[in-house]
Amino acid sequence: MKFTDLISYFESLATEHVSIGHTPMEKHFFRFEVDEVLGGLNRTDVNFPMLILEGYGFNFTDNRSDNVIKNRTGAFILLGRVIDHTDYSRVHEIWDELEVIGDDILSRIRLDKQSRLVPVVKEFNFEQVQGSLIMNEIGNHAGIRYTFTISSPQDLEFNPEKWITIE
């Protein structure tokens, strides 16, 4: 799996979901990090609801070096906008709407995982998915941040052709 594959996949989710409707002319999909979202989005080309993919970190686990697993932990954010961040009824409505969209996205990921036709989510681990409500008072954004893990076997077989041999 490459990060660019994950970006393409999530962009297709944003494009194909009827409530998001991302297009090149009406952008609802972006690649940001959570600190950019919480610090306030200073862009005029965003539309709501939006789907934001964050980068991922990774670690490795192994069983005495027999079965090395690469665990990629990433996140996506569904974000809406409120006129007044102190209008808690509206904030709660947006969270409810975004949670439904989040469930839709997870059901699509599950379908794509089960079909085995979308390699980037083949090893998506649903037991690791967590959602958290977020609020950004600077830009009056309310959202949900979903963290996830994709674990896959990692071939760490030594390839001598990739090394300069010093004799």
How would you explain this protein's 3D organization?
- This protein has 167 residues and is of the alpha+beta class.
- It starts with a helix and ends in a 14-residue tail after the last strand.
- The protein contains three helices and six strands.
- Strands 1, 2, 3, 4, 5 and 6 form a six-stranded mixed beta sheet that branches.
- The radius of gyration is 19 Å and the shape is elongated.
- Helices cover 28% and strands 31% of the residues.
- The mean pLDDT is 92.
- The chain has one domain (3-154): 2-Layer Sandwich (Alpha-Beta Plaits), CATH 3.30.70.1700.
In brief:
With 167 residues, this protein is α+β, with helices and mostly antiparallel strands. It has a single domain (3-154), classed as Alpha-Beta Plaits, CATH 3.30.70.1700.
Indicate the overall shape: elongated
The unreliable regions are none
- CATH architecture annotation name: 2-Layer Sandwich
Q: How much helix is in the residues?
A: 25-40%
Topology:
Elements: H1 3-16, E1 29-31, H2 34-38, E2 50-53, E3 57-61, E4 69-81, H3 88-115, E5 124-136, E6 141-153
Parallel strand pairs: 1-2
Antiparallel strand pairs: 2-4, 3-4, 4-6, 5-6
